[in-house]
Amino acid sequence: MLDNHFFEQGSTKAITRNLLGHELVYQSPAGTVAGLIVEAEAYLGVLDSTAHAYRGRRSPANEALYGPPGTIYIYSLRGHYMLDIATQAADEPQGILIRGLEPTQGLELMQARRHKTGFELTNGPAKLTQALGITSLAMNLKLLGEVPLTISQQRLQQPQQIAQSPRINVSARGNWTQKPLRFFVAHNPYVSQMRKTQIDQQHYGWQSS
Prior knowledge:
Layout: H1 12-19, E1 23-28, E2 31-43, E3 72-77, E4 80-87, E5 94-105, H2 107-114, H3 125-132, E6 149-151, E7 162-165, E8 182-185
Antiparallel strand pairs: 1-2, 1-6, 2-5, 2-8, 3-4, 4-5, 7-8
């Protein structure tokens, strides 16, 4: 299991980049499901005009962002659940939104939950939480490892290339909308909005062993 101090080692941008290729594992009541993290977005707290903690906003809804590194922040958006991990020390409300997973365990269970197969299964933040079976705020404010949600200590796969771009579907408020704070495994089919013509069909963007 990943030491939660990982989430305060360096800038949130660097942590987000370094998280790609680690395996997110949820031992759900129905069975274990997991996937390699292939896409994630950094949110930089009080200065970030698109962030939930912009200008120090603090409420019961976003309190998890103010927790110690590795605190799980789950919130609902238009009826869907999103999974974030708090970074930096307590009271420094920065975090990472997990946006895409490449399934590694529990594929059939994920497919049953999503009624989908193929790359559409987990290529977006609401899709992956549904596939994992995260359908409530029960793990919100908990630390990774305190609940049956963990991240692997090491990268299980090494990206050939890590790409970055502006974040997707963020607020147009302020001047942070176009900042390149979305990181993803280039050419991986489980990255949201990845075009078919850009997919590495052989290695999915990972270094070959």
